[in-house]
Amino acid sequence: MNDLKIQKTPGWSMIEVDKVMYTFLAGVKQDDKIVVEAYEKLKEIMLRLRLEGGYAPEVGKVLYDIEEEEKEDSISSHSEKLAVAFGIGRLCKGKKIRVVKNLRICRDCHVMMKLISDVYNVEIVVRDRSRFHSFKDGFCSCRDYW
């Protein structure tokens, strides 16, 4: 890809909180206060999901030639996870979390959204490139077909 000067479209997700749109980029650790807040909340969520939901990152699909721990970090910084974490931290309890994403949601993010909807008792709607996914009570409206 480098030789042909082809660039991959970076993954981004958007969420609206209090009538303000926030955009998160996959894998970009900015010093922005909002992004730092999202990463901190995401760490908290992932710990709770590991303890209560049995979450384990699906690193088998990561194609990079890197160590397992780095693969976990790579997967954990997907933009939709950051957007949902930010939404959980900022939105009132009982509010629906709505996220728009420019790429398709990956398997790991899909599994994590189902767990978040169950453990945090929240409804999450993710619009990816192909379809809407409505996560509620640990299930997705796509019935795990995407």
How would you describe the overall organization of this protein?
With 146 residues, the protein is an alpha+beta fold. The protein has helices at residues 33-53, 68-76, 79-90, 107-119; strands at residues 12-17, 20-25, 97-101, 124-127, 132-136, 139-140. A hairpin with a 4-residue loop joins strand 4 (124-127) and strand 5. The chain starts with 11 loop residues before the first strand and ends in a 6-residue tail after the last strand. The model has no long low-confidence stretch (mean pLDDT 88).
Strand order of the largest sheet: 2-1-3-4-5-6
Outline:
globular
Structural class: alpha+beta
Strand percentage, roughly?
15-25%
- Quaternary arrangement of the chains shown? single chain
Largest sheet: 6 strands, mixed
What is Rg?
15 Å
Proportion of residues in helical segments: 25-40%
Poorly predicted segments: none
Let me know the average pLDDT: 88
How many beta-strand runs? 6
Total count of helical runs of at least 4 residues: 4
What string gives the helices and strands in order? EEHHHEHEEE
Give the termini distance in whole angstroms.
Answer: 27 Å
